[in-house]
Design goal:
- The chain is globular, with a radius of gyration of 11 Å.
- The relative contact order is 0.22.
- The longest helix is centred in the C-terminal third of the chain and has 15 residues.
- The protein has 3 helices and 4 strands.
- By secondary structure, it is mostly helical.
- The mean pLDDT is 84.
- Helix 1 runs parallel beside helix 3.
- The protein is 55% helix and 12% strand.
């Protein structure tokens, strides 16, 4: 499982971020930055992580996630 440091947060896994986003139905700018860093990281996402990120973006496109700051 990929762990990424995103200031001002400690290392957090992509699964934890996805679980929180899908559980609350809200996505923040920090979440967006986290996903961008995960996608550009030297260590590629595994297929399960990539599938989860894709689900978040599909839900965002369908209007099922509220964008908050």
């Amino acid at each position: 499982m990929m762990m990424i440091n995103v200031a001002p947060f400690a290392a957090i896994s992509i699964g934890q971020v996805i679980k929180r986003v899908l559980g609350t139905g809200k996505i923040t700018h920090d979440d967006e930055v986290f996903f961008q860093k995960a996608m550009l990281c030297e260590t590629p996402l595994d297929p399960e992580e990539m599938d989860q990120v894709t689900k978040v973006y599909y839900r965002l496109q369908m209007g099922l996630l509220k964008v908050v700051d």
